[in-house]
Amino acid sequence: MNALDYFNARLQATISPMDYIKAKKMNPEQYFLIDVRNGPAHVRSITIKDSHVIPEQELDNRLDEIPKDKKIILYCWDVWCNTAAKVAKSLLEQGYDVKELTGGIAAWQEMNFPVSTATPDNPLSNHCGC
Predict the structure, then answer these.
(1) Which residues form the domain of 17?
(2) What is the pLDDT of residue 40?
(3) Dihedral sign from CA coordinates of 101, 102, 103, 109
(4) Burial class (CB within 10 angstroms; exposed 0-12, middle 13-18, buried 19+) of 52
(5) Residue 37 lies inside a defined structural domain of this protein
(6) Known Pfam families for this protein (predicted)?
(7) Looking at residues 118-130, what average pLDDT do you find?
(8) Which H or E run includes 53?
(9) What total of structural domains would you count in the chain?
């Protein structure tokens, strides 16, 4: 693979936080954002605002929650985390239109973009699976 092919593939497979916000603003019904991070709920208590929490460990049992008619955007912890990439591969193999959010929640928070916080009355996920 040459450099041009690499960058074309990278751009096809990922979306930056800024590009996601712009795209979502222009066409809000087209996107479905999923937090695929694993781990105890208390370490995942902050999520990107309006994201759907479906940890990778629960994916196979919750596929019915993921629409096939939308662009699926996945995120995990940071650039060092490959959970979103693993989930993207799985969903692509099943016919979903998928991109990974570059930098995960760490990049999102670094840019001070909107987040949601879990509370006892409003848990982000009842299915930790840990």
Answers:
(1) 3-117
(2) 84
(3) negative
(4) middle
(5) yes
(6) Rhodanese
(7) 45
(8) strand 52-53
(9) 1
